[in-house]
Amino acid sequence: MDLDAVTKQSVLHAKPDGLILQYGTAGFRTKAEHLDHVMFRMGLLAVLRSKQTKSTIGVMVTASHNPEEDNGVKLVDPLGEMLAASWEEHATCLANAEEQHLPRVLVDISEKAAVDLHQDAFVVIGRDTRPSSERLSQSVIDGVTVLGGQFYDYGLLTTPQLHYMVFCRNSNGQYGKATVEGYYQKLSSAFVELTKQAFCRGDDHRTLKVDCANGIGALKLAEMKHYFSPGLSVQLFNDGTKGKLNHLCGADFVKSHQKPPQGIEMRANERCCSFDGDADRIVYYYHDADGQFHLIDGDKIATLISSFLKELLLEIGDGLSLGVVQTAYANGSSTRYLEEVMKVPVYCTKTGVKHLHHKAQEFDIGVYFEANGHGTVLLSKAAETKIKQLAKESEDEKRKAAKMLENIIDLFNQTIGDAISDMLVIEAILALKGLTVQQWDALYTDLPNRQLKVKVADRQVISTTDAERQVVKPPGLQEAINDLVKKYRLSRAFVRPSGTEDIVRVYAEADSQENTDSLAYEVSLAVFQLAGGIGERPQRGF
Ligand code: 16G
Ligand code: MG
């Protein structure tokens, strides 16, 4: 390591005095103007991680669904997964080191992580459409080069596309070709193969309206859409030509406000969906004939997908295990439906893709989705081999099911939730089953739910257990929540410190919207009183 060169370059990417940031659930995220030094340093870190793993590492510049003024960065590990937890700590140390300590911290990390400094390093970089992203990704490149790493800058990519590229490169192309074209081809050929049967029935020229949150999803879908037409025709809205990124649109807006985005024309019973700003989340929705809005969130997406997979597995009859992974935010009705009607085992993990991903790897086929629309399906190596074999050798019906399963799995991004691939899987299943969006929605009825935010002086005073469903600290808060929950029917509530914002999140559900709102308000008040609330007290009726 040429530490003198690092010191010299680092001056050009100076850390603002006193700024402390943390590598959170989704990497570093804050106002773009505070991130230059972090980008440079993540370039450095990516080189060390690449040397240590002897693999290509990814760096993605994005702040996902956050406002356009924000930005962020996360590292992608060799198998296209989120950065390992021990390296999250290294990332935090490196980002917060004062200028003069930077060389020492680099040496420390290299020693602690037993990095072989003589190894070559290779880093691939992607970025979203934020105005600040290009400059910030240049700072990443500066960091990579000063430590002698090689790099390839993919430029504009969705987050899942960058994860895909990393995995392709580290699997010697076995997972796919590490180009945007390769990504389109992999997904679209699986989609076309899978839907051949449905679309040639002739009943369907299917149109889907997509709100692209004025983000990268619009560019990539526009490039891709001719690959799967005429079977599926997608109409893009909020494509970034006019509106601001994530402003009054996108998956996060639709899910949290439970209303349609601006900038999309919805006619009764038309199927619509929204991506988030870096296209790793998707939610569906429609207006019914009475003009009422219906949201189909990640839970209902998981239900559609897992019931289809379960049918295929029954057909194959080879005892492959299927599991669904959710978080505490999953609507109670979805969990009940999956467990009691579909008889599929359901597990709950902490919020954040890495936790769900990890759990889903325990099954032959692991379906994981957050209610916010982030999710995918993972297939174990053993199951893959078995399915491939069945697709070749077994008798007709079994072979058909195995082939279908093979195509579905090819369609899913195995590295992380991917709005584009999820969309294609959903469209394929709806077409194959001949389901309308209303029929899908009618699988079960969501319990009314409400999410609120509470400002506290220090959100770390709250700690939780049981996949964030129970508070252990501060004392008395869980008892207070228990007492409040008891007042309502079909009720449930939990609180947790956000991993991405300086707030505490409150979730409540109950038998009616009115009761849900009361419960959410009362729990917010308990948090405010028992966990050091600051600013305005929570208000009834918000
Ligand atoms: C990040 C996570 C998302 C999670 C959200 C929770 C990834 C790639 N993204 O966006 O999964 O739902 O954070 O945010 O892991 P919160 O901690 O502020 O509620
Ligand atoms: Mg995102």
UniProtKB/TrEMBL annotation:
Q: Which residues form a coiled coil?
A: 380-407
Could you provide one GO biological process annotation from this protein's UniProt record? UDP-N-acetylglucosamine biosynthetic process
Question: What is the top-level taxon of the source organism?
Answer: Eukaryota
Q: Which residues form the Alpha-D-phosphohexomutase alpha/beta/alpha domain?
A: 51-90, 118-169
Per UniProt, residues of the Alpha-D-phosphohexomutase C-terminal domain are: 471-523
- The residues covered by the Phosphoacetylglucosamine mutase AMG1 domain are 178-283, 297-434
Residues given in the record as substrate binding sites: E370, A371, N372, R496, P497, S498, G499, T500, R505
Q: How is the cofactor bound?
A: Binds 1 Mg(2+) ion per subunit.
Q: Does the keyword Metal-binding apply?
A: yes
Name the chemical reaction catalysed here.
N-acetyl-alpha-D-glucosamine 1-phosphate = N-acetyl-D-glucosamine 6-phosphate
Active site (UniProt) = S64
Q: Which keywords annotate this record?
A: Acetylation, Carbohydrate metabolism, Coiled coil, Isomerase, Magnesium, Metal-binding, Phosphoprotein
Kindly list the cofactors needed: Mg(2+)
Asked if the keyword Metal-binding belongs to this entry, the reply reads yes
Residue positions binding Mg(2+): S64, D276, D278, D280
Q: Which pathway does the database say it acts in?
A: Nucleotide-sugar biosynthesis; UDP-N-acetyl-alpha-D-glucosamine biosynthesis; N-acetyl-alpha-D-glucosamine 1-phosphate from alpha-D-glucosamine 6-phosphate (route I): step 2/2
An annotated Gene Ontology molecular function = magnesium ion binding
What the protein does comes down to: Catalyzes the conversion of GlcNAc-6-P into GlcNAc-1-P during the synthesis of uridine diphosphate/UDP-GlcNAc, a sugar nucleotide critical to multiple glycosylation pathways including protein N- and O-glycosylation.
Question: What family classification does the UniProt entry report for this protein?
Answer: Belongs to the phosphohexose mutase family.
Q: What is this protein called?
A: Phosphoacetylglucosamine mutase
What is the species listed in this Swiss-Prot or TrEMBL entry?
Bos taurus
